[in-house]
Amino acid sequence: MDELLIRPLEPYDTDEAARLWWRSRHAYPDLLPPAIHTADEVATWFAEVLLPDAQTWVALDDGRIVAVLTLDGDDLDQLYVDPDAAGLGIGSTLVDLAKDLRPGGLALWTFQSNTRAQSFYLRHGFTEVRRTDGAGNEEKAPDIRMTWGDHGEGVPTDRR
Questions:
Q1: pTM of the model
Q2: What's the burial of 148, exposed, middle or buried (CB within 10 Å: 0-12/13-18/19+)?
Q3: What is the pLDDT, as a whole number, of residue 26?
């Protein structure tokens, strides 16, 4: 890996960032429920929703997007790393950026089936605060709410 460049998402990045999201999302079928939107719908979402309405960052290696981070208020809404670049510390660098940008605390959702993400976030100081049956997410898959810092969503609840 060459020197990593992290910068805000630009309009000309949205297609490449959406392809990275799609590739990353489908690299671990045993951990994640299938995406319910097509690749074209994801590209439109990046261009028409994430670009104007959220704070999205991209990590580039040699001019190629290798990771995407989206903050929506104090929610770490998206964090996807290219499967070929996983385990190189890029996700950790982006979580550190998110913490720097939201020193008052962060929250996120992860699927209960995504034990890899849960371990990652626990290593980065996030704490599980609740589990749901997934009725509130598009995939209808059981999920976990995690927080970091003084987020204010309360103390962790007992695991069910």
A1: 0.88
A2: buried
A3: 84
